[in-house]
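Example 9 (inverse folding). The structure is encoded as follows.
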């Protein structure tokens, strides 16, 4: 689905007659322009005037844009030759400072790998706690640099040889005898990998020169993938799934730890509560532990997730330690200011491939959390608390997450939608396959447990006739059934007809209560599922890779409403095809001027992939997935939501080679934009001797004229040191203006 700028303007000015950020009542104790999106029509006009004047000159990227001020007739010449740089490229007048990088000391552990979501909880002016997610391990650069960065060696060669010799190049490490040397070797690698994921808290301070530096306080600490295993620092849990965790015997595997949980991993995006806690989203946990569960919510055996690897990832690293799969895939809450807090998993928020969280806490109303499941065919979810928020800044609000209901979104093609409760009495009503691009729907398999992939309408009809309500799919007491539903949330949502969406990667709430959602990719998948083509489609009605940003408004602006309105407000893709010039929108942030800041998430093997011709050797169009090579490196964008530039997208930055820029977060005074640079050199690893290639790209001007671009592309990365032959390392940076004024 594409959206023209006039439609964007109409929608932002519509939605019940309210301007985009004009529905928030003004606090008379706060100056009119010191709080984001405040005020009356007159203040809106002031914001419009300000936001139409960008605080930066957009950088020139690799693709002609409507906003780059180069006429279409001159674009082919202006973009004929382009050089990509292995650095974080920012507009003139901006700099970045590296705050921490993989391997740096944090408490009694180290700064982890592939830093993602960031949160600065400020304790005073120019000081606070920076909480950082560590998502996963990028095998190639991690192995290349491990000994140099960490200072010890691991048996990579021995395990690699064993995998190559194994059937299907995977090993059931859980079933190996404890005396088997291979089990010990895999355990060594797995322990270090799990140490490098999870959550970190580092204390920081801004110096008079504007630079943020670490202060190494007693609150600095790591919550790793193995916290609790040897140190007793277990994570806690709340909600109905605790009844499942406490089972000593079940249909499947139990770890005998009750409601205690060992570690957290695949911590991707997140959110910060008004009461000063940070929520960390466990996303692709299925890479480390089994995802599917039995009808009573207990896990499949660790032997079902075998140890393996490819050029980018490690898989099954939790199996050797016997971690129970049903304890991962949750939202983790941590209070960065409490050095004894190692996290709580709130099971009412559901278990799925969590990506981000939007928190709506308003006095006198229920507490509401939004989150997306980042998979092809994943759902958008909303939790509504039973209790009422009294003071949004009261830390007692965390208790509200212990009782409520989880809902999954159903989108209608006419722009309306509703919320479906994931409770035992909800009717079974799966989608028909003809609305899904991939013609496959994963559903709970009963009575065997696990999941089956329905590929025929007859299978859907049989499933619907056999099971009448969600409660029929699960066993145990009412509370145990509810816990099992939450553990199996994605497949339960499929069973009741929640809309299969296009990888919802961020959920950002504006102060007027409206929700912005970044849908990263509308492509189909034969393994996970596919989005609903009635909602997520290109101009030709087919699957659309490049993604969208959606705005959702609850009826009457009530957080607890069961109906909503939605519309796409930005579309990825080439300008010649109606897109804004980016692809695969990911994390979002909203500054106090009302601008949406967005970073992109392209598959690492597609960055700068040569496109010398838009047709392949068979004279068929190059796939949308491969065409993402046209877009260069991961990028940072700004989209004004008021003024004359509303609905346009401006290029603010480019990341280093093969990295993903993630987790944008503004300081309270807006003078600093914190950013994670994740997995530089993920595919190629170390850039050796400043190597580069010249590649050809069949580009288009904004009005559709084709031309050939020659692009100089570094091979691998040396970021952040940028010294020849240095190992690339994920790192967190603070972006600021040289004059230290507000961004």
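The amino acid assigned to each position is listed next.
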């Amino acid at each position: 689905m594409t959206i023209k700028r006039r439609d964007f303007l109409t929608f932002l000015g519509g939605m019940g007659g309210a301007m985009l950020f004009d529905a928030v009542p003004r606090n008379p104790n706060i100056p009119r322009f010191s709080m984001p999106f405040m005020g009356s029509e007159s203040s809106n006009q002031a914001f419009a005037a300000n936001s139409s004047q960008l605080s930066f000159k957009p950088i020139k990227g690799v693709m002609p844009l409507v906003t780059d001020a180069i006429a279409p007739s001159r674009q082919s010449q202006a973009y004929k030759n382009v050089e990509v740089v292995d650095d974080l490229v920012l507009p003139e007048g901006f700099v970045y400072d590296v705050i921490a990088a993989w391997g740096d000391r944090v408490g009694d552990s180290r700064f982890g790998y592939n830093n993602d979501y960031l949160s600065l909880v400020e304790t005073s002016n120019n000081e606070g706690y920076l909480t950082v997610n560590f998502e996963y391990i990028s095998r190639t650069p991690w192995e290349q640099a491990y000994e140099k960065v960490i200072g010890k060696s691991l048996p990579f060669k021995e395990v690699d040889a064993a995998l190559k010799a194994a059937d299907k190049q995977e090993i059931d490490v859980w079933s190996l005898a404890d005396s088997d040397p291979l089990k010990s070797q895999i355990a060594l690698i797995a322990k270090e990998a799990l140490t490098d994921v999870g959550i970190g808290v580092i204390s920081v301070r801004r110096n008079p020169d504007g630079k943020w530096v670490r202060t190494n306080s007693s609150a600095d600490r790591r919550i790793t993938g193995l916290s609790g295993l040897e140190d007793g620092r277990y994570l806690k849990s709340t909600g109905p799934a605790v009844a499942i965790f406490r089972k000593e015997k079940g249909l499947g595997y139990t770890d005998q730890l009750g409601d205690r949980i060992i570690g957290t991993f695949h911590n991707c995006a997140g959110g910060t509560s008004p009461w000063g806690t940070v929520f960390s989203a466990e996303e692709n946990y299925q890479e480390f532990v089994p995802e599917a569960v039995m009808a009573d919510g207990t896990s499949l055996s660790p032997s079902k997730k075998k140890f393996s690897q490819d050029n980018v990832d490690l898989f099954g690293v939790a199996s050797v330690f016997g971690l129970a799969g049903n304890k991962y895939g949750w939202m983790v809450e941590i209070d960065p200011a409490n050095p004894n807090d190692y996290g709580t998993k709130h099971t009412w928020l559901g278990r799925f491939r969590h990506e981000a969280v939007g928190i709506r806490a308003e006095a006198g109303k229920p507490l509401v959390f939004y989150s997306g499941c980042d998979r092809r065919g994943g759902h958008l979810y909303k939790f509504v608390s039973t209790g009422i928020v009294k003071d949004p800044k009261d830390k007692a609000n965390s208790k509200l997450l212990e009782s409520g209901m989880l809902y999954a979104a159903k989108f209608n093609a006419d722009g309306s939608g509703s919320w479906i409760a994931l409770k035992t009495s909800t009717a079974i009503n799966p989608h028909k396959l003809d609305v899904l691009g991939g013609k496959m729907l994963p559903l709970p398999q009963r009575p065997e447990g696990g999941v089956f992939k329905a590929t025929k309408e007859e299978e859907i009809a049989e499933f619907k006739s056999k099971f009448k309500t969600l409660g029929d799919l699960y066993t145990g007491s009412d509370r145990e059934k509810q816990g099992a539903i939450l553990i199996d949330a994605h497949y339960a949502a499929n069973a009741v007809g929640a809309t299969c969406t296009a990888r919802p990667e961020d959920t950002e709430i504006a102060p007027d209560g409206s929700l912005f959602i970044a849908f990263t990719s509308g492509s189909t998948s034969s393994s996970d599922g596919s989005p609903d083509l009635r909602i997520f489609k290109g101009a030709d009605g087919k699957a659309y890779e490049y993604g969208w940003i959606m705005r959702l408004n609850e009826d009457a602006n009530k957080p607890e409403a069961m109906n909503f309105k939605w519309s796409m407000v930005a579309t990825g893709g080439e300008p010649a095809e109606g897109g804004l010039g980016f692809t695969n929108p990911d994390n979002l942030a909203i500054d106090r001027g009302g601008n949406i800041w967005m970073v992109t998430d392209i598959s690492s093997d597609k960055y700068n992939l040569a496109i010398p011709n838009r047709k392949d050797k068979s004279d068929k169009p190059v796939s949308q997935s491969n065409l993402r090579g046209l877009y260069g490196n991961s990028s940072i964008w700004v989209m004004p939501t008021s003024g004359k530039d509303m609905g346009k997208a401006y290029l603010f930055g480019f990341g280093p080679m093969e990295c993903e820029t993630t987790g944008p977060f503004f300081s309270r005074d807006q003078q600093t934009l914190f950013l994670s640079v994740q997995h530089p050199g993920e595919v190629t690893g170390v850039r050796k001797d400043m190597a580069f290639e010249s590649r050809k790209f069949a580009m288009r001007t904004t009005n559709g004229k084709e031309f050939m671009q020659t692009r100089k592309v570094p091979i691998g990365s040396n970021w952040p040191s940028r010294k020849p032959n240095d190992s690339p390392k994920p790192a967190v940076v603070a972006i600021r203006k040289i004059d230290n004024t507000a961004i």
